[in-house]
Amino acid sequence: MTKKHLDWTVLTILAIGAGCGLVYEYLLSHYAGRILGAVEVAIYGIISVMMIFMGVGSFLARGIKNPFMGFAWIEVVLAFIGCSSVLMIGGGFAFASLFPQILAETFSLPPDLIPKGSLIAQIESIARFMPYVVAALLGTLIGMEIPLIGEIRSQIYADSLKNNAGSIYGIDYLGAGIGAILWVFLMLSLEVSLAGALTASVNLFIGALFFYLFKDKIPSITGLLLAHALVALWILQVFNYGTQWTTEMEDMLYRDKVVYRTNTHYQHLVVTERISDPAKPKVLTFFINGRTQFASNDEHIYHSMLTYPALAASARQDNILIIGGGDGLAVRDVLRWNPKKITLLDLDKGLIKLFKTPIIQNGKVINQRLMDINQGAFNDKRVTTIFGDAFISIDSLIREQQLFDTVIIDLPDPSHPDLNKLYSARFYHKVFNVLTGDGAMVVQSTSPYHAKDTFISIGKTVKHAQFQHVQQYHHNVPSFGEWGFTIATKNGLSASQRLQNLTSLSVDDGWVTKGLMLAAFEFGKDFFLQSDKIKINRLGSMVAYQYHRADWQKQMGLYQK
After folding, report:
1. 299-555 falls under which CATH superfamily?
2. 271, 286 in Cβ contact below 8 A?
3. Best label site of 206, 316, 541, 556, fewest CB within 10 Å?
4. Chain mean position to CA 61
5. Where are the alpha helices (DSSP H) in 465-542?
6. What residues does each domain of the chain span?
7. What is the pLDDT of residues 500-540, one digit of tens each?
8. What number of helices (H) and strands (E) belong to the chain?
9. Distance between CA 502 and CA 529 in Å, rounded?
């Protein structure tokens, strides 16, 4: 092989390695966010840690005297840690979750006295820190690749190459870009341990190829060959059993039995079940990225309080817009009002498929209970679904000059920067433009008890979007605790005044009464006393996201003002 061909082979190996490194970065961020329940912190935290330690690795590479041997070993170790990363993190969390139960059984403690002391807290803290430890290890190894390749190229040509750095960094960026594309379009929907094993196998392959090319420059090849063989066997084990291991470890993080899980292009969905009363159906709880979305035994309370006040306060209930609500439960409740048309905007086709289309495994429809809960709402001919980012999708409705009698916004809390824009004054102004003059709009507005600043900010932001009357109300939902909503009208009377004027309720949903709705608008003394200090969430300001993060950190004891 000529020097030129050898050089291009080395650069190709570097590009593939860069792609693997980028996949590891995204994989760790994705998985850490799932199990930490704090997606935004995990993503930026993991990326920051890996970038810092890539710099550390670059400095450490100067201490490697034989770059050929160093690079070959780095690829083997990268393959092992990359393949094991999900299992290491999941195992740490599983142990932290199981440890109190082990202590309780060892000392024969009753169920209500499961240990929660400082030792348990320390173990949980260590487990929560594990993703960042793994990120540091991988970042250090990835950071060593470029300096070593630079030295290797210099030795191939027996001098310092002109434009050596430019060629190396250029091919590294290209490889990382391709890795990012593969992650988004292929690997994001794979089970995490399988994605890790697949990436590790590529690392091991390029390590073996590098070894074949430069074995005459690598001393003590026996240990390296043995390492390749052992890591290859480990990768095969993870390919065969990794999914089973990770699911068993993940099951320990949920209080109830996990009966279904899947990855969509955008999020991780989990369904659990438990028996609360042998005479009643099992209670299903639905999670997205580890966060509770609903429990089947009390979701009717949440959805009743979300939909009924706005529908009852609207002059008509013919044409309804629902933003979010991919589980179809809000659609189910709206259908009770016999509308002519319901339009639903949602991002995730995979989520709606779970609640709409039978999924058959081993001859059994495994999502039948979920479709039963929403009473097949998505299969009603009056329901039209538009897939896409609601912030953008609503523009087409504005251009078409569509107007809706009621708008119901049932989105996740603003716990991620990407969700912040859907709680901005700009977005609510868009909603203003599609709402009829005598209609009402409602927004789920997180917990006024656990996230008070976020709750008040949402109300003030809606008011800023030109709605004439904006009010907030709340109700207790056992699965969530105290939960809040914001309701607005463009003209005429406020929502509460319209509800007060009702002589009867035209729809019986089994929960709402006129008195219950009116009482929901009452808050404790001085609840809004400090509202003047709460900011409006403008597009790009990240106010709602920052309030939400700070509010919940205070509730968890992780934040001190």
Report:
1. Vaccinia Virus protein VP39 (3.40.50.150)
2. yes
3. 556
4. 35
5. 495-500, 514-519
6. 20-251, 299-555
7. 999 999 999 999 999 999 999 999 999 999 999 999 999 88
8. 18, 13
9. 31
What is the 3 state secondary structure string of 396-425?
A: HHHHCCCCEEEEEEECCCCCCHHHHHHHCH
Q: Which two tokens stand for residue 342?
A: 């319901």
DSSP 122: H
What tokens does 466 get?
Answer: 């030109």
Quick one: residue 409, left, alpha or beta (phi over 0 = left, psi -120 to 50 = alpha)? beta
**Cα–chain center distance at 32:** 10
446 Cα distance to chain centroid? 17
What are the Cα distances from residue 23, in Å, to 15, 86, 182, 363? 13, 13, 8, 36
Rounded Cα–Cα distance for residues 541 and 117 (Å): 39
Give the global pTM.
Answer: 0.75
Q: What is the pLDDT of residues 265-303, one digit of tens each?
A: 778 788 999 887 787 888 999 988 777 889 999 999 999
User: In 3-state terms, what secondary structure has residue 124?
Assistant: helix
Q: What's the one-letter identity of residue 209?
A: L
Q: What pairs with residue 471 in β-bridges?
A: 487
CA–CA separation, 469 and 491 (whole Å): 8
Closest CA to 454 of 347, 561, 326, 542: 542
Cβ pair 291, 476 in contact under 8 A: no
Question: Do residues 214 and 224 touch, judged by C-beta distance below 8 A?
Answer: no
The first and second tokens of residue 415, run together, are 């716990």
SS3 per-residue string spanning 244-280: HHHHHHHHCCCCCEEEEEEECCCCEEEEEEECCCCCC
The encoded tokens of residue 354 equal 């779970």
Compute CA distances 468 → 317, 428, 440, whole Å. Answer: 20, 13, 11
CA distances to 255, 273, 366 from 283, rounded to whole Å, are 12, 5, 15
> What is the Rg, in whole angstroms, of the alpha carbon atoms belonging to the chain?
27
For residue 115 the two structure tokens come to 């240990």
Please write down the HEC assignment for all residues of 133-193: HHHHHHHHHHHHHHHHHHHHHHHHCCCCCCCHHHHHHHHHHHHHHHHHHHHHHCHHHCCHH
**Would residue 410 show up in a list of annotated catalytic residues for this protein?**
yes
Asked if residue 297 lies in contact with residue 278, where contact means CB atoms within 8 angstroms, the answer is: no
Q: C-alpha 407: how far from its chain's center?
A: 25
Considering the candidates 327, 410, 453, 551, report the single residue annotated as catalytic: 410
Burial class (CB in 10 A: 0-12, 13-18, 19+), 360: exposed
